[in-house]
């Protein structure tokens, strides 16, 4: 039995090292890869890019299916209330479908992020890497949490875009029924990158001209950052470390907020308490209340009013601090 346990530990250790090497490698998505043209020049670890591509692929498939449903539902609607009702059913249903279809893949991805980060943190502190209960709880929470944002984004964005385009088409062009549904199909095909689509004959709100695939890049990156921070806190607990500082990756893409936060020192107990608060959240709104993002000006005002304790109270002592944040924790030895 001891030999079997030793063999399993060896296999797990090899898997950790493979994930770590992938995670530490730098990967650039270039214009030479047409399918990822929308996320070119984003430098992120390959595991992050892989998850982002997976989410984008799922999104395109479900959105494409959603267009067929939107066309059929809107074509059958005869009143504005009927159109609004159809839009609501479509957006809510598609959000749940996307979250469900991507849930298993996201869970496996965040487990890889976490295990690689735990190995790196444990090795740096001279520990034998292991996954205890805090690690298990963190991985379980991440596997549940990231589908929140997947479904929420799809439901909110798709629903709002259909509603906005339909409203403009009704008010400005007097369209209804089949004409309206075909316009929605043409516009969302273009906006979601499913095909060339047609130039909009109606005003499309500026906020709806964004790139949905960049959302998946940010979501994948924040999953990796959260996993890394939680894993480092776990390793520091095991090693008896009492304090840590925030550090950036030190390249030209580091934002002004993260540069300002770099070097600020907090206790491991404060970080662990923040992790516990996050793990207790059950939806995206609860998470935002516990770990909401701030601008540089807001962070400076918080610090001026309460110092480091103010930053802790605001949940700013554990990255990610913003969209695409790549900050990390460094033990104070």
Entry keywords:
single chain, 333 residues, mainly alpha, three-stranded antiparallel sheet, disordered N terminus
Estimate percent helicity: 55-70%
The proportion of residues in beta strands is: under 5%
Secondary structure category: mainly alpha
Mass-distribution shape = elongated
Order of helices and strands: HEEHHHHHEHEHHHE
Q: What is the terminal separation in angstroms?
A: 38 Å
Tally the structural domains: 2
| Rg (C-alpha, Å) | 23 Å
**Main beta-sheet annotation:** 3 strands, antiparallel
Number of strands: 5
Mean pLDDT: 78
Query: How is the largest sheet built, in terms of strand order?
Result: 4-3-5
Low-confidence stretches are 1-42
Q: Helix count?
A: 10
């Amino acid at each position: 039995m001891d030999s079997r346990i030793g063999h399993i530990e060896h296999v797990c250790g090899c898997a950790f090292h493979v994930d770590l090497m992938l995670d530490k490698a730098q990967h650039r998505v270039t214009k030479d890869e047409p399918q990822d043209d929308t996320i070119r020049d984003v430098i992120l670890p390959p595991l992050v890019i892989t998850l982002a591509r997976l989410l984008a692929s799922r999104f395109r498939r479900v959105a494409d299916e959603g267009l067929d449903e939107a066309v059929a539902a809107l074509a059958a609607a005869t009143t504005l209330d009927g159109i609004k009702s159809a839009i609501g059913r479509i957006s809510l249903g598609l959000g749940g479908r996307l979250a469900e279809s991507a849930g298993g893949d996201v869970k496996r991805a965040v487990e890889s992020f976490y295990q690689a980060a735990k190995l790196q943190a444990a090795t740096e502190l001279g520990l034998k890497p292991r996954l205890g209960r805090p690690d298990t709880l963190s991985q379980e929470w991440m596997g549940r949490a990231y589908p929140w944002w997947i479904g929420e984004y799809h439901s909110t964005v798709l629903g709002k875009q259909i509603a906005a385009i339909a409203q403009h088409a009704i008010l400005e062009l007097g369209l209804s029924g089949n004409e309206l549904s075909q316009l929605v199909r043409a516009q969302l095909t273009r906006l979601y990158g499913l095909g060339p689509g047609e130039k909009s004959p109606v005003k499309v709100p500026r906020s709806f001209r964004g790139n949905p695939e960049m959302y998946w890049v940010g979501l994948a990156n924040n999953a990796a950052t959260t996993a890394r921070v939680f894993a480092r806190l776990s390793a520091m607990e095991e090693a008896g470390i009492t304090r840590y500082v925030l550090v950036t990756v030190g390249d030209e893409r580091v934002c002004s907020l993260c540069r300002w936060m770099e070097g600020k020192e907090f206790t491991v107990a404060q970080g662990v308490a923040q992790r516990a608060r996050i793990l207790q959240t059950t939806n995206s709104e609860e998470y935002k209340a516990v770990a909401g993002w701030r601008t540089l000006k807001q962070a400076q005002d918080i610090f001026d009013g309460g110092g480091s304790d103010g930053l802790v109270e605001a949940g700013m002592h554990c990255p990610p601090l913003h969209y695409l944040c790549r900050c990390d924790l460094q033990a104070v030895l």
